[in-house]
Amino acid sequence: MRRLTLSLIAVTLTAAIGLGWLLDWYYQSQSQANEDYAPLIEPKQWQVLALQSARVLAQQPELASEFTAQGLSVSFARLDDFPLPTPLFEQFVSGEPLVLNSQSGVSLHSFQAASQTVVSFQFANTTEPTEPETADPLLLTLLFYLGIIVFIALWLTPLIRRLLLVNRAMVQFGEGQLDRRIPLSKFSYLHNIELGFNQMAQRITSLIADNKLLSRAVSHDLRTPIARLRFGIDMLQETNTDTSKNQYFEQLDRDLDAMESLVESLLHYAKLEKAKVSLSLQAVELNALLGELLKPLQTQNHIILDWPQDQAFTAQLDKHYMSMLLNNLINNAVRYAKTQIKISLTKQKSALILTIEDDGKGMDKDEFDKVLLPFYRIADHEDVPSQKMTPPVTKLAKGHGMGLAIVSRIAEWHKIDLQLSRSHQLGGLAVRLVIPIE
């Protein structure tokens, strides 16, 4: 939103200042032209000129054609044919010129006593100098506001285009196109909103996928022990020996434990799925934390730990959830390792790299993403219920497929990059955590 606000302010100020300066310059140039304008011949000057010309024309009438060619009408009349009121007549006869204004223009009349002739000059309206027109202030005001509107419209065009794109994506996502995302652009005014929509859509898609997976997994994992319980109860009703009854009771007890463990795992994961998790971040020394978690394993002779402890590595983490994450990874490595587990911890410029490897069977590359989903287990590790139970034998599951799902969720909270691969050195699974320290 900051980018949107700043860009709107910048466009508005640029348009207002730029258009204001441009229109002001135009108006000033027009005003300067008016100030610089002046007739080539002032009225007094052309009157004197006309009087001087009248003396010449009275003696040489043939020169009148020269004045006519310049757009000036010249005519001659006798004094008797030029009636005037007595006061004005006396002034006129004494040599004072007479200037008359009419609809046809301005005329100047001069009496030449030597020839007893009245010389008349007719100046048409078309020959009078006119001042140049100045710009209309109202028109300039309209142009200013029109320019502002054009600038804002140009600014709004990409914004409206992105809003339509967001609206279309929201409608399509609401109609069930869960893979619909908004293509991001670093020049978009709505970059944060578009990014937030994509993250929200991805979150909703993940929740829906998790819900489907949970429904299938829970129904499958509950169906198996329930079927065994029903089978065990039926067998208890048919057997009469105490030995067989005790075996069936033990089997029923194990099946109930399996169901209880499944429900506990489901509730535990549901707690981690809360929309808001408050992390209590503090400086956690990872080598010390690993030491606490690995201490119980150091007594197990069949597991060899390769773990450098000579350097301190500190990051801002929630110690409780980080202990849960590391404990799940360590237990997973112990569960599937044959004889060896290797833990390495190194530091880069802006991150700590923690790697946990084992020499177990590992997994195929196409299962790296699947094992991060809740209740997903590799086929070799799933329960294989016995079809014939005489006495019944249960092959217990190695967990419920929640360990790496919990690890993935906690890593997401801490913005830790979780990477799964095959260990080149030991051949089993290698889990790599890139922990930011800045």
Automatic annotation (TrEMBL):
The keyword 4Fe-4S does not apply. SMART domains: HATPase_c, HisKA. Its EC number is 2.7.13.3. Its main location: membrane. It comes from the Bacteria. One of its GO terms (molecular function) is ATP binding. Residues 217-438 form the Histidine kinase domain. It is found in: Cell membrane. Gene3D superfamilies: 1.10.287.130, Histidine kinase-like ATPase, C-terminal domain. InterPro entries: 2C_sensor_his_kinase (IPR050980), HAMP_dom (IPR003660), HATPase_C_sf (IPR036890), HATPase_dom (IPR003594), His_kinase_dom (IPR005467), HisK_dim/P_dom (IPR003661), HisK_dim/P_sf (IPR036097). The chain crosses the membrane at residues 138-160. Keywords: ATP-binding, Cell membrane, Kinase, Membrane, Nucleotide-binding, Phosphoprotein, Transferase, Transmembrane, Transmembrane helix. One of its GO terms (cellular component) is plasma membrane. It is a multi-pass membrane protein. It is an enzyme of class 2 (transferase). Residues 157-209 form the HAMP domain. It catalyses: ATP + protein L-histidine = ADP + protein N-phospho-L-histidine. Pfam families: HATPase_c, HisKA. This is histidine kinase. It comes from Saccharobesus litoralis.
